[in-house]
Design a protein that fits this description.
The chain has 522 residues and is mostly helical. It contains 25 helices and no strands. α8 (154-163) packs across α13 and α14 packs antiparallel against α15 (292-302). The two termini are 45 Å apart. Residues 486-495, 510-522 have a biased composition (Polar residues).
Length: 522
């Protein structure tokens, strides 16, 4: 058993109550009909919007199809009934665990189950949210499924597989031991047992070296932080699959990051004051929309006068931006704006990672990746929502330095479920326009036939197959002997037709079952 197998085995033992609940959910009545309901509806949506079969879709079409299928299936009545059955099974598993171990689980808060190829989250505490809003709090496996559909780039996979055999991809740095220790420390802090997985540590190091060569740049700190949500999402992967695919996910991830961060950096960075004012004004706009009281407190803190602004400003900017930028600075900017501007700038460049915990970062990236139109607004909205969670602490601040300290101390402790609820509360009444292309929800839902219809068709198909099989067996029993195999036949015809007789051509005969199957697939 290799290291990863040992780790997986340990995790399974630790979470055996989760495994038990999943096994119980496999016994839900009519589960195969629910699965078939989804697959048939997904094929219909594919034909309706793209006039293709799923395997014929290109990368962009596949992304859109994936989101349409998942989001629509989550809003039909039978899905709600299924969730109720899942919750019953899960509660039984929790009660069994409590009875035999004496350990109290926090109800369903830490129970992320997966069935129907992990399309449906099993947290009963957010079922009402599901029924109201299609942006769901994703279970790890559901997140993995969707992220694969959005980030997987087969061309990058092939390029990586080609170059991975070249020695330059694994050039040993003189600082290799230091790099490995840093990576191990990060993995221990954020992923606990992962810090002891030496194969994973080497994989992360190899990915960093390859990414630097691929991007033709020195990696900044955000390049390392951006790995965390990916490792969290795909942490169940075996070493080989990680090495083969994670590089593709990582580079695709960075492309999305550049898309939204570059939109924020629309001001000339050399004009430092203009840039800081630009990002603060954007934040204030969304903060006013989310919580006017919070925005008033934030605006008041920014407007506080302070003595010796220039001296403080000079010292701070030399340490943060470098002496070369000082010639372009307007030293009239307040101390408060400089401090908060650097905090917000770091959040934007890292796209939250490192400012909050990894699970909250994953929720933020769910919010960004699931939207077809990704924009800078998402970064400011998520920052404002974090401030709302720690609102009381923000209202107690006397200056921006207090606010920065509160943010760094409290944001990392935020619960991912609480953060998701904030996203839901903000988004449920918004006009999302074409963010998910679900304005035609009724039309999409029509592609998923009722579960009763699926069951009836399934049973009818079984009956047809049975009757056809019996008819075939009966026909075989009454067949005359084939003259081609007559031992008394002359040599010229033994095993075949006479040379003078042309070979007949046959058209394939489709059985009724096969014909119906073609209609269903088409």
């Amino acid at each position: 058993m290799d290291k990863l197998d040992q780790l997986d085995d340990a995790l399974r033992k630790k979470n055996y109550h989760v495994i038990e609940a999943e096994d119980r959910c496999d016994t839900i009545p009519d589960l195969e009909y629910y699965q078939k309901q989804f697959m048939l509806g997904a094929k219909n949506i594919c034909m309706q919007y793209f006039n293709k079969r799923p395997y014929q879709l290109n990368k962009e079409e596949y992304k859109k199809w994936l989101v349409k299928c998942f989001s629509t299936y989550d809003t039909i009545d039978t899905t709600f009934k299924l969730k109720e059955m899942v919750n019953i099974k899960t509660k039984v598993a929790i009660d069994t665990h409590r009875r035999y171990t004496g350990n109290d689980l926090d109800d369903l808060k830490d129970m992320n189950m997966s069935i129907l190829e992990n399309l449906i989250d099993r947290r009963s505490s957010i079922n009402k949210v599901y029924k109201l809003f299609f942006l769901r709090y994703l279970s790890p496996r559901m997140r993995e499924t969707i992220w694969k559909g959005i980030l997987l780039d087969q061309a990058t996979v092939k390029e990586y597989e080609k170059n991975i055999t070249e020695d330059k991809s694994y050039t040993v740095s003189k600082d290799e031991i230091y790099i490995l220790k840093v990576i191990q420390s990060i993995l221990k802090d954020d992923f606990h047992n992962f810090g002891n997985d030496y194969d994973l540590i080497l994989l992360v190091k190899a990915m960093m070296i390859y990414a630097a060569e691929y991007l033709n740049t020195y990696l900044q700190d955000f390049h390392y932080y951006m790995l965390f949500p990916l490792l969290q999402t795909f942490k169940s992967y075996r070493t080989y699959t990680r090495g083969k695919l994670l590089m593709s996910f990582y580079l695709s991830f960075l492309k999305v990051r550049m898309q939204i961060v570059d939109e924020v950096n629309e001001k000339d960075e050399t004009v430092y004051e203009a840039y800081i004012n630009h990002i603060i004004e954007n934040l204030q706009k969304y903060l006013e929309e989310i919580d006017p009281e919070l925005n008033k407190q934030f605006t008041d803190l920014l407007s506080i006068d302070d003595e010796a602004i220039k001296t403080y400003h000079m010292d701070l900017l030399v340490s943060t931006r470098g002496e070369n930028n000082l010639a372009n600075l307007d030293l009239r900017m307040t101390k408060q704006k400089v401090i908060f501007g650097e905090l917000l700038r770091g959040y934007i460049e890292r796209c939250s990672v490192g400012f909050v915990n990894v699970k909250v970062s994953c929720v933020i990236w769910d919010f960004i990746l699931l939207k077809e139109n990704k924009s800078k607004e998402d970064l400011f909205i998520t920052f404002a929502l974090i401030l709302k969670i720690i609102k009381q602490d923000v209202l107690d601040c006397n200056n921006i330095i207090d606010l920065e300290r509160v943010f760094r101390a409290k944001a990392i402790l935020i619960d991912d479920y609480d953060f998701f609820c904030n996203i839901f509360d903000y988004s449920k009444d918004k006009n999302w326009k074409d963010a998910f292309s679900l304005l035609d929800g009724e039309s999409l839902r029509a592609n998923f036939m009722s579960i009763d219809r699926v069951r009836a068709d399934h049973e009818a198909e079984k009956i047809r197959e049975y009757e056809e099989q019996k008819a075939k067996e009966a026909a075989e029993l009454n067949l005359p002997m084939n003259p081609s195999f007559n031992p008394m036949a002359p040599p010229s015809t033994q095993g075949g037709l006479p040379d003078s007789q042309p070979m007949p051509t046959h058209k394939p005969i489709l059985t009724q079952s096969a014909s119906n199957m073609n209609k269903a697939i088409g």
